[in-house]
């Protein structure tokens, strides 16, 4: 199929900066080389683009399949999508990469404990349009503002009011990029988040080098707006969410051909299914019935083992 026949409504968005290849085995070869892992350490799952959002009757996120880590031996999971009818060098696209141990456990636990105790009392909550359904009738964040889910934004970001940097017209001698109710806590929060950005940068470079290159190409143009203590700083801002349910949305002002890196910090440890968990939903995709090698039996084996949960009820 040539590029002239490309139809985004039918095929979905086209991008190659996370990874692409002519076949699924080519994707495996690419990612094994990037990650320096082989065999069961790399898991590939295939999804199909539907163009129809999976949501509840109220318009809130719903997951039908949950992909969980199969074992400690599984280090990385790559989600790919076949471009219908294509046999070209980019017929298979990587749409998500999950690194299960992206942050060392000690660091993750310390950061989790700090953020969960600091942000609810000290943070300035950011009102986000994706916090509720379109009709503003859902209770996804809970009924009480005092204990409900919340979103907090730090660092630099685009402002709809200025059509540019939100600090562009700031009159303060020092911009508070990590603003909290208690100013004494701001240097501590900044140190935590700057360290996180510093540590995740090299991992991002390893798993998605093209995307990383795009995000750092103009690093020298705005060094004060970047997070991280050393060169190679792809990130300018961070959103920290606490029990927050983000409804399906499209970020309009992300860097072109970059990506959003999500670091999930939870109280849960181990591989068993937790009582309470955070899911990241791909709202326009469904899971393929066959695994990367074309086997239906292998997919059912994953369901039996718990690596895939196929939901028939959707607890809200």
From TrEMBL:
<dbReference type="GO" id="GO:0005634">
    <property type="term" value="C:nucleus"/>
</dbReference>
<keyword id="KW-0223">Dioxygenase</keyword>
<keyword id="KW-0560">Oxidoreductase</keyword>
<dbReference type="GO" id="GO:0141166">
    <property type="term" value="P:chromosomal 5-methylcytosine DNA demethylation pathway"/>
</dbReference>
<dbReference type="GO" id="GO:0040029">
    <property type="term" value="P:epigenetic regulation of gene expression"/>
</dbReference>
<keyword id="KW-0862">Zinc</keyword>
<keyword id="KW-0158">Chromosome</keyword>
<dbReference type="GO" id="GO:0008270">
    <property type="term" value="F:zinc ion binding"/>
</dbReference>
<dbReference type="InterPro" id="IPR046942">
    <property type="entry name" value="TET_oxygenase"/>
</dbReference>
<dbReference type="GO" id="GO:0045944">
    <property type="term" value="P:positive regulation of transcription by RNA polymerase II"/>
</dbReference>
<keyword id="KW-0408">Iron</keyword>
<comment type="similarity">
    <text>Belongs to the TET family.</text>
</comment>
<protein>
    <recommendedName>
        <fullName>Methylcytosine dioxygenase TET</fullName>
        <ecNumber>1.14.11.80</ecNumber>
    </recommendedName>
</protein>
<comment type="function">
    <text>Dioxygenase that catalyzes the conversion of the modified genomic base 5-methylcytosine (5mC) into 5-hydroxymethylcytosine (5hmC) and plays a key role in epigenetic chromatin reprogramming during embryonic development.</text>
</comment>
<feature type="domain" description="Methylcytosine dioxygenase TET1-3 oxygenase">
    <location>
        <begin position="157"/>
        <end position="316"/>
    </location>
</feature>
<dbReference type="InterPro" id="IPR024779">
    <property type="entry name" value="2OGFeDO_JBP1/TET_oxygenase_dom"/>
</dbReference>
<dbReference type="InterPro" id="IPR040175">
    <property type="entry name" value="TET1/2/3"/>
</dbReference>
<dbReference type="Pfam" id="PF12851">
    <property type="entry name" value="Tet_JBP"/>
</dbReference>
<dbReference type="GO" id="GO:0005694">
    <property type="term" value="C:chromosome"/>
</dbReference>
<keyword id="KW-0479">Metal-binding</keyword>
<dbReference type="GO" id="GO:0070579">
    <property type="term" value="F:DNA 5-methylcytosine dioxygenase activity"/>
</dbReference>
């Amino acid at each position: 199929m040539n590029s002239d026949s490309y139809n985004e409504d039918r095929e979905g968005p086209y991008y190659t900066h996370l990874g692409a290849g002519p076949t699924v085995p080519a994707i495996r070869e690419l990612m094994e080389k990037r990650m320096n892992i082989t065999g069961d350490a790399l898991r590939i799952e295939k999804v199909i683009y539907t163009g129809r959002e999976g949501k509840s009757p109220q318009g809130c996120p719903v997951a039908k399949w949950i992909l969980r880590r199969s074992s400690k031996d599984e280090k990385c999971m790559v989600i790919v999508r076949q471009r219908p009818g294509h046999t070209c060098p980019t017929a298979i696209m990587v749409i998500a990469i999950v690194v299960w141990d992206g942050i060392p456990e000690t660091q993750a636990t310390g950061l989790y404990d700090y953020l969960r105790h600091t942000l609810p009392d000290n943070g300035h909550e950011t009102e986000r349009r994706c916090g509720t359904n379109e009709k503003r009738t859902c209770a996804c964040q809970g009924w009480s503002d005092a204990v409900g889910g919340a979103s907090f934004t730090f660092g630099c970001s685009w402002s709809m009011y200025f059509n540019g940097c939100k600090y562009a017209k700031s009159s303060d001698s020092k911009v508070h990029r990590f603003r909290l109710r208690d100013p004494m806590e701001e240097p501590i929060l900044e140190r935590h988040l700057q360290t996180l950005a510093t540590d995740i940068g090299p991992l991002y470079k390893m798993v998605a080098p093209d995307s990383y290159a795009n995000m750092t190409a103009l690093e020298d143009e705005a060094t004060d707006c970047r997070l991280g203590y050393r060169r190679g700083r792809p990130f300018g801002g961070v959103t920290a969410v606490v029990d927050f349910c983000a409804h399906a949305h499209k970020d309009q002002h992300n860097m072109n051909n970059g990506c959003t890196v999500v670091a999930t910090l939870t109280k849960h440890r181990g591989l068993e299914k937790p009582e309470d968990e955070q899911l990241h939903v791909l709202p326009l995709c469904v899971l393929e019935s066959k695994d990367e090698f074309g086997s239906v039996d292998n997919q059912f084996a994953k369901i039996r083992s718990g690596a895939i949960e196929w939901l028939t009820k959707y607890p809200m």
